[in-house]
Design brief:
This protein is mainly α. It is 68% helix and 0% strand. It is built from 5 helices and no strands. Helix 3 runs antiparallel to helix 5 and helix 4 runs antiparallel to helix 5. The protein is flat.
Length: 168
């Protein structure tokens, strides 16, 4: 292949590529396109929703504590008695009891973490909201100071007094 032929093939490939170029966007007339954040609102989670979820997790934790642990002690006792009498079933029952206790503790830990996390989240977000409100109010206060004019634009502000000609 000659050099000229190579250059011609490259130019033809570039022409074909440029005519088939397409942008990754929808036609605005088809209902697609970018939506401004102000038109669909901010992400919100109401404190009432967090409270309900946290309360449900706490209630589940309490029910597991009261009702699901009841079977552990009798199962352990039965497993011990069966093992002492020479039954292999005692070892199997003890294994099941141990696994039940491990899984129960894992589930109770998860419920406690959900409940505690949501309580902490509510407190943190309330603190963040207060901080943002304080910052915004201080910005408004500062901004309002720039809007107040004591004198006419272009003239010296009488608040600062007059220039003392002796100092010059």
């Amino acid at each position: 292949m000659a050099w000229d032929e190579w250059e011609q093939l490259k130019a033809e490939a570039a022409d074909r590529q440029s005519t088939h170029m397409q942008l990754n966007q929808l036609d605005p007339g088809d209902g697609g396109g970018y939506t401004q954040p102000s038109s669909y609102g901010d992400l919100k989670v109401e404190n009432a929703s967090l409270t309900k979820i946290g309360k449900s997790a706490h209630d589940l934790y309490n029910q597991l504590w009261d009702k699901a642990r009841v079977a552990v002690a009798p199962s352990d006792s039965a497993a011990s008695d069966l093992s002492k009498q020479g039954f292999d079933l005692g070892g199997g029952l003890q294994h099941v009891s141990n696994r039940w206790d491990e899984q129960l503790k894992s589930l109770m830990d998860a419920c406690a973490q959900i409940s505690n996390h949501l309580q902490v989240t509510k407190k943190l977000h309330a603190g963040d909201e207060n901080f943002i409100a304080r910052q915004m109010s201080s910005i408004d206060l500062l901004d309002s100071g720039f809007d107040e004019r004591v004198g006419q634009p272009g003239k010296e502000n009488p608040v600062y007094g007059t220039k003392d000609k002796k100092k010059e």
